[in-house]
Write a structure and sequence with these properties.
The structure is a single chain. The protein is elongated and about 55 Å long. About 35% of the residues are buried. Helix 6 (about 100-110) packs across helix 7 (about 115-135) and helix 7 (about 115-135) crosses helix 8. It has ten helices and no strands. It has about 200 residues and is mainly alpha-helical.
Length: about 200
Amino acid sequence: MRADARKNRDHLLAAAGTAIAEQGVDVSLRDIARRADVGLATLLRHFPTREALLDALLRTSFDELTAKARELEASSPPADALVSWLRDCVAWTTEYRGVTVLMAAAIEDTESALHASCVTLRAAGARLLTRAQAAGMARSDIDGADLFALVAMLAWLGDQPSLEPRADHLFGVVASAILTSAESSHAAGGTPPSRP
C-alpha cells in the first residue's frame, strides 16, 4: 500500500474510532465519512462494508489484547495475569460502545470478518484461565466461553449510565468470584481503568 493510501486509511480509522466511541458501533458510515472530511465514496473505496471497517478498526485491538495475554502468561503469577487481562479487556470493550454485541455475534458466525480475531482473543483468555485453574487459583467450573461472556457483561455495565458508578465495584466482585478464595483478595484488588 502506498504511503498516501496508508495515511488516508489510518485517518479514516481514527475518525471511525472516535465516532464509535461517542455514538456506538451503529454510527452511520456517512457520519464517519463526514467526521473524516471525505465523501462516502472515499470511505467505501477503503472499506466497502461496515464489517470491513469494524474489522480493520478492531483487529488491531484484538491482536494487542491477545499479545498482552501472552506477555502476562510469561511474566505474572497465574491469578494476577488472569485478572490483569480481564481488566484490560473490560476497559477496552467499554471504549467502543456496543462492541460486545458484535463480538458475541462474530464468535458464532464463521463468515464474519471478525470471527478469527474474536476466537483468538477468547482462546488467549481461556489459556490464562486454564493456567490459573491448573495452579489451583481459579474456579474449575468455568471455561473460556464463560470468561468471554463475563467480559461482555462487565462491559455492558460500563455502558449503562445508571450503573457505571458501580462498574468498578462489580468488576472486583466478579474477579473475586472467578478466583479461589485464597487468591481473590490479592489478585482481584484494584479497579479497572476508567473509560476514556
